[in-house]
Amino acid sequence: MTDNAGDKAVQKSASMLEKLNLNERSWKFYAAASIPPALVAGLALWYYSSRSSEPTKKDDKKKRPRKGKKAKKSKSADDSTEEKSAAASTASLDANLEAPESMTDAQIDALNQEAQAELAQSLKSRGNKFFQAKRYEKAIELYTQALRFAKDPVFYSNRAACYAASSDHEKVIQDCTSALELESRYVKALIRRAQAFESTEKFRDSLYDFTTACILEDFGNNLAATSAERVLKKLAEAEAHERVEKRSPRLPSKSFISGYLNSFRNSGEEAVATDGDDLSEADALFNEALSFTALQEYSQAIDSVEKAVAAVEKTDGSGVQRVADIYSLRGMFNFLKSNLDQALEDLNKALDVEPSHVRSYLRKANLFTEKKDLEEVSSLLDQAHKADAENAETFFQQGQVHFLKQEFEAASNDYKRAAELDPDFVYPRIQLGVVQFKVGKIEEAMATFDEAMKKFPTRSDLYNYYGEVLAEQGGYDSAIGAFEKAIELDSSNPLPYVNQAISLFQTSGQPDRALTLIREALKVDPECELAVAALSQIYLQMGMFEESLAMLRRAVDLAKSEEEMISAITFRETTAAQFRFMKEHPELLSKMMGGGM
C-alpha cells in the first residue's frame, strides 16, 4: 500500500489504481493501454494483409528483327501499332541503359510507364551498391535520379538512409515524410524518421513515429519498442526536470496532507501559559498554526508558523516555550511543498535547539525517504529511539521503512509495538492489517480490522483502507460497503469516493455512477491527485481520449515530485501518441472493426 517510509498515508490508495493500470509499467504497456486489445492485435494483421506494394514486374524485352528478315505479320492493325510502339520504347531503353541519369525530362516523359519503372530500378540498384560501399554522395545522386523516373517511397527512404549516415537529419525527415506521403504504413521510413527526430531532440514526434511502427507491427518490432521506451524516458525526464526547476514550492492536495499528518499522533503540543504569564508572541502564533492545521486550513497555518519563526528570531527565542516545535512545524510544511533544502535547514535548527526532539528526527527521516537515502533514514530512526525508547510514532515510522523494503515480519512487529505503546493511535492497526493481508494471513487481518473498527467506530479513514484491502482480495461488494460507510462518517474525505468509483467500474461496468462519484471527490478536494488520475483512466477506458488527456495534463500539474511527474508525463504522452494514431489512421481501425477484429 504505502510506498514511502514518510508514510504519506494517502498513497495507500495507489494500490486500487493498479486495477486501472496506473502503476509503473514499461513503455510497451502504456502504448497498448489506449487501444482495445483486439484492435491492437489486428493493426499489424491488417497492415500486412492490405499492403499493395508488390514488386513491379520487369518488361520482357522483345528481340529486334534481324536485317533482311521480315517480321511476322500482325493479326490486326491495332496489334501491329502496339508492337511498333513497344519496339520503339525498347530501343530507347536499350540506348539509355548505360546512363539513364543523362536523360532529359522530355526523354523520360516519352517513355512508357514500364520502361520508366525499369530504369528507376536500375538506378536504385546502382545506388544500393554505392550505399553498401559507403559512398553516400554517389548513392544520393543515383537515388535522386531514380526519383525522376518513379516517385517510389523506397527511393526516398534509401536516400534518407544516406543522409542519416551523413548525420543530415533534416533531410532524413524530409525524405521519410515524402515516402510516408506515398505509403503511410511504411515502417522502415517511420523508424528512420523517428531516429532523425530523436537526433534533433523532437522527442514527441519521434515517439509518435516509433509508436505507430509498433502498432503497425503488433508490438513485434523490437527496435521500435525499445527506441520508443528510450525516447519516452528522455521526453518525460527533460520536461519534468524543467518543470520542477521553474515552479515555485506549493502544497499538495488537502487529502494528501491529511494522509501524511495521520501518520503522526498530532502535529505538536500547544504551548500553555504558566504562573499567570501571557504566552509569548511566537508561542501564541504556534498555537494558532496548530489550530489551522487541525481545521485543514493549511495556507493559514503556514502563514502563522512563518510569523512564529520571525517572532522567535526577533527575540533569539528568549521566553519562547516551543522553539523546536515551531522550526519543526515549518520544516514539515516545507517538506510537503517539496522545498527539501529549506525543510532540512528548519529541522536541523529544531534539533540544535532540542537534540531529543523526536518528531524532528521522524520528519527528517521522511525527508530522506523522499531522497531514497534509506541508510540515513535508519540512522535517524535510531537517534529517535535513543531520544525516547517508548515512542509509538518512532515504531510506526520504522515499520513503514520495513514495509517499504518488503520486510513484512519486521514491519508487523513494529506496528504491534506502536499500538501497544499508544492504544489510541489508529494507523499502526491499519498498517498491521494491511501487512497481514499482504502476506496471506487473511483471518488475522480481518480480526485486526474488526478490532480496530470496534475501538474506532467513527474513523472514516479506517473504513476506507479496510475497503481497499477487501477490494484487493476480490471482495468488491464488501469493499463498496466499507467505502459507503467511510463516506457516511466523513463526506469531506475524497478517497472513499474514488475507491468506490474504481470498484464499481471494475465490477459492474457502471461508468456513469463511477464518474459521478469521482466528480464528487473533486468537489470535496479539487486537487485530489488520486481522483484526477482515476478519472483520466476511466475516460480512457471509455474511449474519451480528449477528456482523458485533459485529466492527464492536470495530473502532471499536480505531481508532487519529479519522479511522480515523470510517471504522469509518461502516461500522458503515450495516450496522446495513440490518440493521434487513431485520428490519422481511421481507415485502419474502421476496416478492422468492420472485419470483426
Give a quick rundown of the structure:
The chain has 597 residues and is mainly alpha-helical. Helix content is 71%, strand content 0%.
Unreliable stretches: 1-97, 591-597
Strand content: under 5%
Q: What is Rg?
A: 35 Å
Main beta sheet: strand number and arrangement?
none
Distance between the first and last residues' Cα: 38 Å
How many DSSP helices?
31
What structural class results from the helix and strand content? mainly alpha
Tell me the total number of β-strands: 0
Structure description:
The protein is mostly helical and about 600 residues long. The protein is about 70% helix and about 0% strand. The two termini are about 40 Å apart. Mean pLDDT is about 85; it is low at about 1-95 and about 590-595.
Write out key terms for the chains shown:
0% strand; disordered N terminus; 597 residues; mainly alpha
Write the layout of secondary structure elements.
Elements: H1 14-17, H2 27-33, H3 37-50, H4 77-96, H5 105-110, H6 113-132, H7 136-149, H8 153-165, H9 169-182, H10 187-199, H11 203-216, H12 222-246, H13 254-261, H14 281-294, H15 298-315, H16 323-336, H17 340-353, H18 358-370, H19 374-387, H20 392-404, H21 408-421, H22 427-438, H23 442-455, H24 460-472, H25 476-489, H26 495-508, H27 511-524, H28 529-541, H29 545-558, H30 562-584, H31 586-594
